Amino acid sequence: MTTHNVNQGHGMHVVHDGPQQAPPLLLIHGSGASNRFWSPVVPSLAHRHRVIRVDLPGHGQSPPATSYDVPEQAARLAAALDELGLRQVTVAGHSSGGYIATALAAQRPDLVTSLALISSGPSLDALLPQPALLRVLTAPPLGPLLWPIRSDAMLRQGMAATCHRPVSLPDELIADVRGIGYRTLRAVLRANTAYIADRSLPDRLTALGLPLLVIFGAADPRWDPSSAHDYGKVRGARVEQLAEVGHLPMLEAPETTGELLLRFAVTVR
After folding, report:
1. Rounded CA gap, 174 and 179, in Å?
2. What does each C-alpha distance from 28 to 25, 143, 153 come to in angstroms?
3. Does the predicted model carry a pTM greater than 0.90?
4. Which of 26, 88, 203, 209 has its Cβ near the most Cβ atoms within 10 Å?
């Protein structure tokens, strides 16, 4: 059974699936997304885990925040987990959600026992030229003008441009993306860039010493797929590349992605 709640302390919409007493698994979406991007993998995960999804501030059903700095978003997540009374949480982050997952583990080692990063670019050097439609929609001068008048077809085309395989994009997911403000998205993107410009993700993870799973699409158009191997410097890291998969493995290959997450979560407990 799926349940929802919003707490004024951390200000985030939280979604729960699976048995309450099962091992907890937190799923963090990336920028410009929502908790619904995880929906295809939740049924398989919820058989064995208490699956917690959030809408980050300014995304989905969560209100905007005054700051979108990665450490501050991680602190909000920590508050949500504290409210739920959770410990020993496996945390999975997609794309920039992997940055927040990493910051959460650095701030609260008492909460996070292992990390899974999906399509999380390791450093700015790995960033590829973005698909043309995404560049137009998210950057000046046209972005601020086009953002308020985006059609559903334009949103679907923009998301599909980050994938290699055809994907199903439910109307509810499109509505979540439509609800994100342009200023919010720009602030989030700036904060994400600052986080990995300051220090690469592999360097941050090496200092943490946590079990690590990295999943990368071998046809990711946003980050150089070969950069997945940069995580090999992290002791004990397991790197999985998915053939003919782009930036959204949860939507493009949900069965494989769910299986990898399940296997990882079991082996680290």
Report:
1. 9
2. 10, 26, 26
3. yes
4. 26
